[in-house]
From TrEMBL:
Cleaved signal peptide residues: 1-28
Source domain of life: Eukaryota
Pfam families for this protein: Cadherin (PF00028), Cadherin_2 (PF08266), Cadherin_C_2 (PF16492)
Gene3D superfamilies the UniProt entry points to: Cadherins
GO cellular component: plasma membrane
Sections of the chain in a coiled coil: none
Membrane topology of the entry: Single-pass membrane protein
The entry's keywords: Calcium, Cell adhesion, Glycoprotein, Membrane, Repeat, Signal, Transmembrane, Transmembrane helix
Native organism: Ursus americanus (American black bear)
Protein name from the UniProt record: Protocadherin beta 16
GO biological process: homophilic cell adhesion via plasma membrane adhesion molecules
GO molecular function, one term: calcium ion binding
UniProt xrefs under InterPro entries: Cadherin-like_dom (IPR002126), Cadherin-like_sf (IPR015919), Cadherin_C (IPR032455), Cadherin_CS (IPR020894), Cadherin_N (IPR013164), Protocadherin/Cadherin-CA (IPR050174)
């Protein structure tokens, strides 16, 4: 057990220490407490609440707890009452060995706010161990001629207790020759010496047996005994003597086992067996017996195991030299262990805060202590962290450091930091220890959602099905968790607050998908705009906006509508063409429009059916109906033309119109009604027919003359301008003017003046002539220019 005493002569105490964020109250100490060893678990030590002047509930609310050294929970704190109790039985000899006083250091940590109080607990020794002799029987050989007063050292007894409970006195059993003296070693241990008080006579008493008793200072005292056997030998006049009384030796702690420490030497003036010397360690402790060994013949002392400066700083032992006659001498070996840098620094983490909120000023991230069991420069340390991190290492007291943030952190820039704390001592060679920390940064809602585009343009074909997905908007938030969860909503445009947005589109609040709620009509609404807001779920919530423009794409859902000639179910429109008309003569123009736009409104015209194919043609782009060749007497008088008007959509839509063309010899010729109309009129009024025939017969000569004159004039004029006529025998007309204003594919506008009079089978008409166009850029010259290639365009 004595080895344990030496082991604890230098014991490393690790003080767990915390630092207030405000750095106030650091290192406050409580009064020392004491407790006897071997007290039962739960025994009362002190009331910390009263010592600190705190209320009963304050210890609990502030999160008070006890931190002990070496992760040993010797004490426990009842936060409800403030009582400090024994958590496990304390054995002073096991904790401290021979060290006195035996102190256990602990800290009281209160987290809210952070505050630390240091305290120490003194473990008082009780007399629970009896003295024990390492040698149960000691044999002494004493010459019979030994002088009175000579002292013979005996083996001491060991007592694990300390102070007054250790060995204090020795007694010897009653006898007439010897008494015992109690001596004190430099380390405080007591050992006995046997003193000769009366001369020995080997012939009278060759052997003496005595009982040696060791007593400690406890109450009541404990004791231990050993037997001393004394053999009286013949006379040996000279005892061995060492060359020097003290040997002082220094040895490095890293010396290998078997290394030579020192060689001691003694001489004896006697000869023969009385001059033969043997060497032994005199009363070595258990630790010394395990550490050193001596060669009994040569006196060489070597290491049995490696020495450790951090465990034992020095050794002191007596070397005994005994001759063959039993006389002995002794010297003292003082062995000093020299420290080498064989221990890397140790880092003890006391507090760690993770995660830490972003955008916060200086925050204490960690508190740690640094220790190195070496001495001198070998035990001095330097602490550092990586230089590219936004953290600072600040020294505190007693080798404590705080790791704080250098500036507010941004989680979106970096969410996690791996910090390596490097501690290096100043020894040779330098040893270092690295401790890795992972610190995460918690999110704060400091980023508004950001749209991928500031504005979105979506195209939707008209006549869409309801609830059609027309597109999506997307916004991202650099924050995390609920702060990055984005919800979408619709906003009315400020320039059109009356837009029925709720009936047009809807948005999925979770993913930003947009849906058309009803079918859109391009002819009613070509485009509309609205805003979309993206808001996160942080507190407070942040948002941003984007503009969405929806363009309705035209679909070919409107067939061409024929404006002229009217198709109103009344009598058909008849176009008059003189037989003298040349090829390319403008008979009429089919005017149509399309409600669609773009290529869906590009109209083309086609002659589907004609009474006499090849006589008339239709220009595909403007709907003009012209003669394809010169008229002859063989051509029928009445012609029926079916014209198809078709748009350029996909699929194309079309409309058709029927034209009635009447060939006349001159414009004085009476109007010849269609057969069905004439028959109806004949049935309705036969008297009118007779009257017409009579008048024609009487005036035939006059009429022929007039017609010849008119025909000549018309032929001349038809070469300059083309014209047509429309006769509506029955029914009202929409108006005397028909305005076709450039809608569809017409290149310019036309106005036709028509004057029609209904009568009893005969009528007067005025030749159709173009009036001044709406657009003044057009001229008669251009019309002639367009008519000139007519024949070639038909290829007839």
């Amino acid at each position: 057990m004595e080895i344990g005493w030496m082991h604890y002569l230098r014991q490393r105490q690790v003080l767990v220490f915390f630092v207030l964020l405000s750095m106030s109250g650091v290192g406050a100490e409580l009064e020392p407490y004491s407790v006897a060893e071997e007290m039962e678990i739960g025994s009362f030590v002190a009331n910390l609440g009263k010592d600190l002047g705190l209320g009963l509930t304050e210890l609990s609310t502030r999160g008070a707890r006890i931190i002990s050294q070496g992760n040993k929970e010797y004490l426990q704190l009842k936060v409800q009452t403030g009582d400090l109790l024994i958590n496990e039985k304390l054995d002073r000899e096991e904790l401290c060995g021979s060290t006195d006083p035996c102190l256990l250091y602990f800290q009281l940590l209160m987290e809210k706010p952070l505050e630390v109080f240091q305290a120490e607990l003194r473990v008082e020794d009780i007399n629970d161990h009896s003295p024990v002799f390492t040698e149960r029987e000691m044999i002494l050989k004493i010459p019979e001629n030994s002088p009175l007063g000579i002292a013979f050292p005996l083996s001491n007894a060991l007592d694990l207790d300390v102070g007054s409970n250790n060995v204090q006195n020795y007694k010897i059993s009653p006898n007439s020759h010897f008494r015992v003296l109690t001596r004190k070693l430099s380390d405080g241990r007591m050992y006995p010496e046997l003193v000769l008080e009366e001369e020995l006579d080997r012939e009278e008493e060759p052997e003496i047996v005595l009982t040696l008793t060791a007593l400690d200072g406890g109450s009541p005292p404990r004791y231990g005994t050993a037997q001393v056997r004394i053999e009286v030998v013949d006379s040996n006049d000279n005892a061995p003597e060492f060359g020097q009384p003290i040997y002082k030796v220094h040895i490095p702690e890293n010396s290998p086992v078997g290394s030579l420490v020192v060689t001691v030497s003694a001489s004896d003036l006697d000869s023969g067996i009385y001059g033969k010397i043997s060497y032994t360690l005199f009363q070595p402790s258990e630790d010394i017996s395990k550490t050193l060994e001596v060669n009994p013949v040569t006196g060489e002392i070597r290491l049995k195991k490696q020495v450790d400066f951090e465990t034992v700083l020095s050794y002191e032992v007596d070397i005994k030299a005994t001759d063959g006659g039993g006389l002995s001498g002794k010297c003292t070996l003082l062995l000093q262990v020299v420290d080498v840098n064989d221990n890397p620094p140790e880092v003890t983490m006391s507090a760690l805060t993770s995660p830490i909120p972003e955008n916060s000023p200086e925050i204490v991230v960690a508190v740690f202590s640094v220790s190195d069991p070496d001495s001198g420069d070998n035990g001095k340390t330097i602490s550092s962290i990586q230089g590219d991190l936004p953290f600072l290492l600040k020294p505190s007291v007693k080798n404590f450091y705080t790791l704080v943030t250098e500036r507010p952190l941004d989680r979106e820039e970096r969410a996690q930091y791996n910090i390596t704390i490097t501690v290096t001592d100043l020894g040779t060679p330098r040893l270092k220890t690295q401790h890795n920390l992972t610190v995460t940064v918690s999110d704060v809602n400091d980023n508004a959602p950001a749209f991928s585009q500031s504005s979105y343009t979506l195209r939707v074909r008209e006549n869409n099905s309801p609830a059609l997905h027309i597109g999506s908007v997307s916004a991202t938030d650099r924050d995390a968790g609920a702060n990055a969860q984005v919800t979408y909503s619709l906003l009315l445009p400020p320039h059109d607050p009356h837009l029925p947005l709720a009936s047009l589109v809807s948005i999925n609040a979770d993913n930003g998908q947009l849906f058309a709620l009803r079918a859109l009509d391009y002819e009613a609404l070509q485009a509309f705009e609205f805003g979309v807001r993206a808001a996160d779920r942080g507190s407070p919530a942040l948002s941003s906006q984007a503009l969405v423009r929806v363009l309705v794409v035209d679909a070919n859902d409107n067939a061409p509508f024929v404006l002229y000639p009217l198709q109103n179910g009344s009598a058909p429109c008849t176009e008059l063409v003189p037989r003298a008309a040349e090829a390319g003569y403008l008979v009429t123009k089919v005017v149509a429009v399309d409600g669609d736009s773009g290529q869906n409104a590009w109209l083309s015209y086609q002659l589907l059916k004609a009474t006499e194919p090849g006589l008339f043609g239709v220009w595909a782009h403007n709907g003009e109906v012209r003669t394809a060749r010169l008229l002859s007497e063989r051509d029928a008088v009445k012609h029926r033309l079916l014209v198809l008007v078709k748009d350029n959509g996909e699929p194309p839509l079309s409309a058709s119109v029927t034209l009635h063309v009447l060939l006349v010899d001159g414009f004085s010729q009476p109007y010849l009604p269609l057969p069905d109309v004439a028959a109806a009129e004949a049935r309705a009024d036969p008297l009118t027919v007779y009257l017409v025939i009579a008048l024609a017969s009487v005036s035939s000569l006059f009429l022929v003359s007039v017609l010849v004159f008119v025909a000549v004039r018309l032929c001349r004029r038809s070469r300059a301008v083309s014209g047509g006529g429309c006769s509506v025998p029955e029914g009202p007309f929409a108006g005397h003017l028909v305005d076709v204003s450039g809608t569809g594919t017409l290149s310019h506008s036309y106005q036709y003046e028509v004057c029609l009079r209904g009568g009893s089978g005969a009528g007067e008409f005025k030749f159709l002539k173009p009036i001044i166009p709406n657009l003044q850029l057009q001229s008669t010259g251009r019309e002639v220019e367009e008519n000139s290639p007519f024949r070639n365009s038909f290829g007839m």
